[in-house]
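My main concern about presentation is that the manuscript never shows what a single data entry looks like. An entry of this sort, consisting of the sequence and the corresponding backbone structure tokens, reads as follows:
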Amino acid sequence: MSVWNHKLRKSLMAAGVSTALAFGGTAVAQQGGQVAPQGGQAGTAPQGKMPELTEEQRQLMEQMRSVRQELQQTQAKLSELEQQAYENNPELGKKRDALQDTIAEKMSDDGYDAAEEFKEMKATMAEYQQGDKQPSQAEVKAFREKQQAFQQRQQKAFQDPEVQSMAEDLRADVKKQMKQDNPKAEELFDKMEQKAEEMQALRQQAMQMQKQGG
């Protein structure tokens, strides 16, 4: 089931100290960015009937699709270089572990152990990914509630000044190592920033188009 997929992995502590921290703008690559038809959600119609898109809307959707694809491809390349940086510099792994431990500590309080919750969610996900047993609706609901609580605590932890300082330090070190390892890293970082800005501009254009059409 989709609930036991990468969405959980992205919510776990490791995700917070990997690509999401190394490349601050790459979250844009995960955003859909479709133009919503007049009066409805993106890709849906309010009364179940899909209205005709204008030529301008179709062109904008195609632009966003193209930029999103470039963002995702660039992010994938940067992720490979990031992994290589950790392999080439063991000290980065130690810093990442220290950051993970600090995040877990900030997330935990009386009665809640973030590290233990992390292990339990991983175990649950692994169990159902094997396909031998399908979760009931109640189990899916309980899992999502745990996931949501974990994510909320994680978000709060990332607002902590100590965590932010450690994360910024790690991000700078990782980027430095990536640039040392591969001369194309700088170009990829520049492209990621450029495409992220393009996507933001297109999203704003889409919102403006919706307002004018509504």
Remarks:
- Residues 103 and 163 are 7 Å apart (CA to CA).
- Confidence is low (pLDDT under 50) at residues 1-46.
- The two ends are 37 Å apart (CA to CA).
- The first helix runs from residue 6 to 11.
